[in-house]
Each structure stands twice: as C-alpha cells, then as structure tokens.
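Following up on my earlier thread - several people asked me to post the actual chain instead of describing it. Fair enough. Here it is, all 187 residues.
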Amino acid sequence: MKIGVFGGTFDPVHNGHINAFAETYIGMELDKVIVVPTFISPFKKQTGSSDRHRLNMLKLAVKDYDFAEIDTFEIDQHQVTYTFDTLKYLHEKYPGDELYFIIGTDHYKSFDKWANADKLHELAKFVVLDRNDELYNVKAPFIKLNTNIVEVSSTLIRERLKTNTEVRHLMHENVYGYIKEQRLYET
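Reply from S.P.:
Thanks for posting it. Predicted structure:
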C-alpha cells in the first residue's frame, strides 16, 4: 500500500491543509493518507489552542474524506516528537507499505535541520508540494509534486478571528462552528 503522511499543528486546520493532502492523494495515487497532529512542533512556539481542540477540529475537517485517517501518536507522547520518531512508529505499524511524507518547500529548504535528517529517507519518501508556484529546484531523493495549492495560513486565521474579521471561507464550516462555539482564538 502507498500511504501518505501529513503532519502539522493544525491550529486551526484550514482548506489549505485539506487541499494539500487531497491533491497529494490524487497526484501520487496513494491508497490513503494519515494525518498526524503534533503535540508541540519542534519549529514553532506553543500553539494557540489545546491539543484536544485541535484534534476535535481536525476530526471535523477530515470526516468526509474516506481515504484519510487521523493518528494521534504525536499528541499521545505529550512532548515534542520528531518526524523520525513518528516515521519509525508508522514504519512498524505498516510494515511493507510505502510511506510518503508530505511537506512544503519551506520544510524542504530547512530539511537539513531536522532531527536525524540523514536517516529519514530510509523510512519514507518525501513529497514536496510547490507553494505559490515557486518552481523550486527539488533534488532527488525528494519527489516534487506540481499541484494547485490553496494558500492559507493558520496564523492569518487566528489574527482575523481576534479582530472578528471574516474567515469562514478559509475552513470547513463545522470547524468554523466549533471555533465559534468554543470561543477559540478570541484573545
């Protein structure tokens, strides 16, 4: 089986996230995509909402995609978990299957800073999504996937929510409803 792996803080999950894993599913002819929310990203400060809220929003956003499932491995660790650890776990969980880890060009550019970067290609193939049609020169063993990217930022959404500016068009309607119901990102 060909399995996509898509990680992130998803704070909040938005249409850009969904588009990225759906387009990779299509473009790489994957059998399924595993979405892995982080507990705390090694490259970001503490997130704006709790892991419980981020997971609930993610469940609402992916529920209609029968090829997508959520794995809470990183959240369950209750600490920073590196991609290497997650891929080792998934490699053991899905022996014999091919893992395709989905990243943007921003992560491709900083890949050498990742923990155990020299060993990651032994565990998965890395698919680089070209953001903003940057035409970035992606070198093997990375796989460049030319696809339509929906450019949305969780940071922009959080900022707009603080100022009560319209954001419904940037995310699944149930995620927006959950944010409003739980009063997330208001301050």
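The chain is about 35% helix and 15% strand. That should answer part of your original question.
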